[in-house]
Amino acid sequence: MSRWPTKPLGELLTTLENGSRPKGGVGELPNGIPSLGGEHINREGGFAWDTPKHVARNFYAGMTRGRIQRGDILVVKDGATTGKIAIVRDDFPFREAAINEHVFLLRTDTSKVLPEFVGYFLFGPVGQQQILSNFRGAAIGGIAQDFVCNVHVPLAPLAEQERIVKLLDEADGLRKLRAQADHRTVALVPAIFHEMFGDAAANCKTTTIEDAVKQFIDYRGKTPEKSTSGVPLVTAKIVKGGSILPPNEFIPEESYDAWMRRGLPKTGDVLFTMEAPLGEVAMVENTRIALAQRILLMRPRCDLLDSRYFMTALKMPSVWKQIEERATGSTVRGIRQAELRKVQLPIPPLALQQEFAARVAEIRAVQAVQAASRRRLDDLFQSMLHRAFQAEL
Predict the structure, then answer these.
(1) Averaged pLDDT score across all residues of the chain
(2) Which of 136, 143, 222, 341 is the most buried (most CB within 10 A)?
(3) pTM for this prediction
(4) Full DSSP string of 328-383
């Protein structure tokens, strides 16, 4: 228990508001003023700029709410990512930016509390639990503005807040350096692919995915019975960056054979997400998994394709362009299996594919070591967050 008094978050703020967008949304405006939604706040307490959105300058000039300043705390207010936090600090890359209607902007009274202190508290386990205890709604639920009345922040003296923020900044900096190194390692695979194959489509024979794959197993459109333990359920959201992330959903052991009646995974099978998101890939290594909807399993012909080459080739520009052209949907892009089968795939000599696979395997071993390091740093940071607001740091 903290030795500091607690105050409702609302009593520590000078501003609490959400933003807006033009009627009809932001569309595909290629430039203008950045408009941030929930998708632009990542789970690490920072920002993601993969899918930038903009509003016109004249719309931004007329906004009376939701214009971002240094020191603001942004909180996702609805949907599946409710509660995600980011602090707008000096390294924020835009001089002018706004939030949309799915994000709250909190501005602290700096005579009472540092924004970084509040931000770290809200990012930590206690703050997250308090925020999410205010979640209401079933389909697309969220939190209302009055959540700030029910979140209680330990109020340390300002000098102690500064000390704690400095320590947490240092620990968070180590996490960010680890993440940067991880990103550089991930970039090695496409770089090696380009080095070995170049514009493969122009230099070797091609064939359709249908002719290069021995078996397709599709569980699209089905939702299995779930349990708190059992066989890991691989959903589209955990196929990411060429890997299957740790699962957080399972199906009962006794339901596995019935659910997987269309076919069981084998080592070397390639998973492809058909929509939401489209086009994430991974290779099956642990075969005791269940497949959820929106995932297609492809078993390549061993006389024609190496699995690691196949997985990487699906993301090469000449192949990905075909997938995009055959995909449908404006908001949520997806592709039908019949259309994916028609995509032309470059087929270099198998020996060259296998050489590529061996180099990728070396990179995957490095990534495994990095992942263990990342988990240790994350555990340390979470421990520090907990201790910091218990006056134990």
Answers:
(1) 91
(2) 143
(3) 0.73
(4) B-SSS-B--HHHHTT-EEE---HHHHHHHHHHHHHHHHHHHHHHHHHHHHHHHHHH
